[in-house]
Specification:
Helices cover 60% and strands 2% of the residues. The protein is an all-alpha fold and 392 residues long.
Length: 392
């Protein structure tokens, strides 16, 4: 029940009847004391009244019907409160399920020392409220949002979209955040330029083996060992294989070779791929590394071995007028569709601008399962021989 109490010279005061809670423990402020404070216009009395009403609400959570009234009382008193009082108020309301939403949102945009408890813990804040903070508030506010337990995928995506290093770091270390597989992939990609993300990502529970292999390419020795241990990758064998592919097995890129030398190089790379596959260490990450190191033959043999294709099929795809078949082959072995455009650019540099650019960019259509991609590639390749049939 709500009753106005009007004194001779005072501003009307609203007294709110609260619903008693059976679990309330400890002494609670007396309504008479709060009423006396309401008649006292001093700043100290207003602050004591504010905290007293909070304590009373904690002991006897208010019913929904009086929430608008409570909200107006709190907002009026909070505007008059000094910084230290607002800070205490934020701490007291951080876990309160009865707190007025309008007041919580005001505190969430206050200076960071006041806002932090609300941003990190208040059950009142919804996704739209958090997204507003990411847009309107300071970097410290954004970090608090990213640290918030169990933030939704929608909020996590917004944090990743903004790509602020410190905020990304807070999100990466938040193990309760709902981050999609695509979100983790984007974090791995950001870790290429933000070294601080690499350590937390190697330990992140949502990191997949395919993403771990991408991460492996630009982390230091200690983190490579951690990845190798977690995903049962033979770090020594993979490291030797990559080094051999770059230095020992082939000649430097651009070196003029006669056909016999080229044949020897092709055979050595085939044997290297066979060894890696026999040891269970052939991964899509090695193919990406081979292209970056300008080892087209190593890429061709590796792609054929991983996908169960013939080298002739792969080379036909590399020489086709459209990149469609090559995309299917890459997707079949787990190369992410977001990586493919960059990979295609590098392959064209190594292969006389082939495959060509006829047809649409099919990798933009959406995610394709590895099985479907393999079947599509085999249909387009038309067997182990002959020219590649294109779908354009």
């Amino acid at each position: 029940m709500v009753r106005p109490i009007v004194g001779a010279s005072e501003t009307p005061v609203v007294l709110v009847q609260l619903v008693p809670a059976s679990h309330a423990a400890g002494p609670t402020p007396r309504l008479g004391d709060l009423l006396a404070l309401a008649h006292d216009p001093s700043t100290e009395a207003r602050q004591r009244l504010l905290l007293g009403v909070v304590a009373l609400c904690d002991a006897c959570p208010p019913s929904v019907d009086v929430s608008p009234v409570l909200c107006e009382i709190f907002l009026t008193l909070a505007r008059q409160a000094e910084r230290d009082v607002r800070k205490v108020l934020s701490e007291k309301l951080a876990h309160a399920e009865w707190a007025p939403a309008a007041l919580v949102n005001v505190l969430a945009l206050d200076e960071i020392e006041i806002a932090r408890p609300i941003l990190e813990f208040s059950p009142i804040l919804q996704d739209d409220d958090l997204l507003r903070v990411l847009i309107e508030a300071s970097l410290e506010h954004q970090i608090s949002v990213a640290r918030r337990p169990q933030i939704s995928g929608r909020v996590a995506d917004a944090v990743i979209d903004r790509a602020e290093p410190a905020v990304l770091m807070a999100l990466t270390t938040n193990r309760t955040a709902e981050i999609s597989t695509e979100g983790v992939r984007r974090l791995v990609e950001h870790s290429r330029r933000i070294a601080a993300l690499r350590g937390p990502l190697t330990r992140h529970p949502l990191l997949t083996e395919a993403l771990a292999e991408q991460l492996y390419e630009w982390v230091g020795t200690a983190l490579r060992q951690a990845i190798a241990t977690r995903f049962t990758i033979d770090e020594q064998a993979l490291g030797i294989a990559v080094r051999d592919a770059v230095q020992g097995v082939t000649r430097p890129a651009g070196h003029e070779q006669n056909p016999e030398d080229q044949g020897d190089r092709d055979e050595m790379e085939r044997r290297l791929i066979d060894k890696l596959q026999s040891a269970g260490q052939l991964r899509a990450g090695l193919l990406i590394r081979a292209v970056r190191e300008k080892r087209l033959s190593l890429f061709s043999h590796g792609l054929a071995a991983l996908g169960g294709f013939s080298v002739g099929q792969v080379r036909s795809a590399l020489s086709a007028p459209s990149p469609e078949a090559l995309y299917y082959a890459c997707a079949a072995v787990g190369i992410d569709r977001a990586v493919f455009p960059t990979l295609l650019v590098e392959l064209r540099k190594l292969n006389g601008s082939l495959p060509g650019d006829r047809g649409e960019a099919i990798w933009l259509r959406g995610t394709l399962s590895q099985g479907s991609a393999a079947r599509s590639f085999k249909v387009l390749s038309g067997g182990d021989h002959g020219q590649l049939k294109t779908a354009v």
